[in-house]
Amino acid sequence: MNDDVWSWLDSLKAFGYNPSLDNTATLLGRLDMPQHSFPAVHVAGSNGKGTCCAILANAFTLSGKCTGLFTSPHLMSVNERIRIDGSPISDMLFEDCLKKIKEASAIKPLVSPTFYEATFLVAMLAFRDQGVERAVVETGLGGRWDATRLVDADCCILTEISLEHTEILGETLAEIAEEKVAIVRQGRPLVATWPYDNSARKVIERTVRDHDNAWWWRGDRSTAFKFSEAVKAFRPLSKKKWYDGWMPYQQEAAMLARAALRAMGRRLAYDEVDRAITHTNWPGRMQWLDVDDIPILLDSAHNPSGMARACEQIRFQKSRDMAPMPGVIILGCTVQKDIGILLQPLVELIVEGQISHVFVTQPPDGRKAAVDCEVLANELKQQGTEAQITAIKSIDAALSSAKEKAVELDGELPQPILCLGSIYLVGEILKIIDEDGEMDFQNILIVPDGEDGIDPIA
Question: Are residues 222 and 334 in the same domain?
């Protein structure tokens, strides 16, 4: 392994966020424009991007297309950001692409990409070199100045928009929507999640010129509808009660994927969405694991709307006897604009679920700094719950304490542990759980084999 290029990649973290496409565009030119070797679906939004991308990519793969997927950040290994047909690329391929990028950046005038921009460039080179026929690309931050905006997109998707990264994207939903909808490619289809904030919706509608080539998706309708038809009165097409006011995030992501594939006219991939849902493993998002006979639920609820959705889903699944209520919580998060707003849905879940113990820990710093575990614990105590709240800085120690408490609460049937907050927290927990490297948390396309290696779902 060439330590030099990996050290170089690590050094790029010092550059932070770059609100410009210039460096990436220059390097793509020096690398012979690899992003033009395949069409891409470009996905932006605040929540649900990763799940939508995973289902969409797996649907393309199952339809017979060699498919590349670029996402960020990663949980355990930087290779996870770049997958081909569900599997992260190898260290050897990553290193080879990284070497080419480093050489291109050294051509005068010198160009210094950020860590994120470098991983995006690795993805573009790897996809071209490996003969990828279709790519699914997730934005990292915002949209307007995100390196991924340079892909050759034949369809764009906007997932749910919420207040996040306000110091960069803006203080209101309308300002954030304006940054994210900047990914739209005029003349190409757009599928967007309906924002119930009028100002955000108007920004999106104003940005898109062709309202007959853009579709809204919202939870109370079984199919997406064109922007040009949004003012028409809505009447149910049937009396079938398929929607009762709430749906799991996986279902929402799948419906967005279907709407995009229909808009693109990709029938083969459209027909594979149901199978893609069954075969998609998206780590760190409502992910149930069994560790030492203790059920553990992982979710990277990193912002207020994500926390609210996670708590809603836990509550909903418990009410339908689909999953148990957790008995113990491990919490850790990065710096928030208002930590109280982030914690409110969790406090409601703790009270309603009579959850007795919360272990507050501290994830490693990533794009944003972690909240000190003592500070976070004090904030949670001030919310007024009867749960015992304990601050433990070490994630490993917090997990051990939570497992001990889960067994103590019920020796025969240990109480489930809910681990949620920062994606960096979830990543560290997965590393601890899989310290021997025997579990496959990184392949997102899991195809079960039947007799003679035949997929029983096919």
Answer: no
